[in-house]
Amino acid sequence: MSVYYDKILGKFRDKSVSGGGSGSQPFAFTADNYTALLAKTGMVSGDVAYVSNSQGTQWLPGTVGGNYYANGIYLYTSGSWTSDRNAISYELHLDDERLDALEASLSNLDLDDLTDVNTGLPAAPTEADDGKLLFYDNDNGLWITDDAVTHGTSVINAKKSSAGTIAKGLPVYLIGFDSDLHTVELANATSSATMPVIGFTAEVLDNTNSKHITTFGKVTGVDTSSAVSTLNPNGETWAVNDALYLSTTNGGLTKTRPTGGTVLIQRVAKILKVAASGGQFFVFNTARTAGLPNLSTDKLWLGDSNGIPQEVDKSTIVGSTSPLTIKGDLYTYDTADARLPIGTDGQSLVADSTQTTGLKWKNLPGQSTGSGTKVLVQGQMNTTQSFTSTAERIDYVDSTLDVNNEWDNTTHRFTVAASGAGVYQFINTIFINNSGGWIQIFIKKNGVTQRITGTDFADSWDTPIGATNIDLVVGDYVEFWVDSTTSFSVDATWYALNNFQITKIGDSVTIYNAPTDPRVTSVTSVGTLIVDSSTTDQSIITAQSGALTIAAPTGTPVQGRKLIIRLKDNGTARALTWNAIFQVIGVTLPTTTAVNKTIYVGLIYNTTDTKWDVIAIKEQA
Known about the structure:
621 residues; 1 helix; single chain; mainly beta; rod-shaped
């Protein structure tokens, strides 16, 4: 903008103004159209005029119908115009001095002195006006300030693309450009055609005038309450610092990430103030959506050759069709995806390179091949019981494990009911002192002796252990019995060592604490014998050739765990040394081998004393 000093008004004005027929008039007046020239009043000596007209002549202000003047510069003096160049040069020199004076005083210039400036600031500005910027408004032809354009806010000029209006404070997306103005409409998240949001309307938009859109910064004076509105279509309760996403409803926001496979995601604002009319929010992340939108059902993101993620249907991916057909099948691989059928009950999955898939189902040591696999009842004696030299029933009681309530603690018998017909396994152990007689344990089915399950011929302490399988149907009952050549009794000291267990065969769990075959380890001779009680039931030395130390067994034995040690020398008696963990019960540990004789040592683990109780010593006759 250029300015000049107007002597008539006594102030500076725009230097360049347009005349209807005379072109630019850069001095003290505006010449009217020469076809309707009116007398200009207030002329004073020293006014200078420049004549420039397509007709080559122009009336100069004075009286209507005045003289024509050729193109050139003229000076007004005492009521007439002259082309005296000396006078004109002097007057122009004075105008230069006035311009110099203007330049020196610009720092004190009051903007309200300029006719095209209207700050819009109140007479007494407050803190709310802090940061307002002066900008040019083409619609009003003024330099003004407005709440839509404030310090720290980025705005662009725009108008509505179609007829109608868009209220203040709503998200819009870009349609295109018209006369260098962005054209926009209300945005929503349903597809890429209606987003991303490029900004929020800072004032009401129409399809005619240039208005402002905030692309970054604060939007004020809007409704951020929970009332249902275009901005808050779901009537959500917003709080300060809530992050808001573009909604699937036109012009709406939501604090909950939109769902749905075709929905795009754009988080665009944060709440600054909650109010019905004076609400505020901060605009950010405009002109872009989230890197990856939501996915539809059964869709996957898959990178292409350029590393760009593409949405694909899972059915189009090689190997996406499952070969599995029944419960328990395993998904494996040979030269292509393959099915490994489920194994039989009780089997374990092991690696096997000879198989096409490298895997197979197998019965491991200690697992039963399709036999007893679920413990139904287990228990022990819990009362003092005396036995004569005739066969008698053992009065066992269950120890809280009775899966189908089939054990009777009064009759001390097992009666098949809910467990159903099938093959059952019965295991029991007796530990007694019958003063040198023999003892045997057996079972009765429906009162009839079935088979002997265990016999012991020890001189004093006997510990027969037996396991028997038997077919039963619903209603059959089974009892545990014992027979001895001499009388004996069982008291509380030995209750835990007199126990039983009942298992139905075929219920898909390995037999509880009862391996199918004994686990045996054997060496010819060794200086120190260390037995792993977790993996060994019987340890054998076949021809000991030197002194032997029997160390404490390793492993993690449980109460009642049984272990047998069998010793034999190589024809020369060998010294035996026993670890202190071996606790004798009514027997004496041997200190040497007997030449060419086999010695058995029976052990039971005692968790109460943390000892291996030595309960039997037998030497070959």
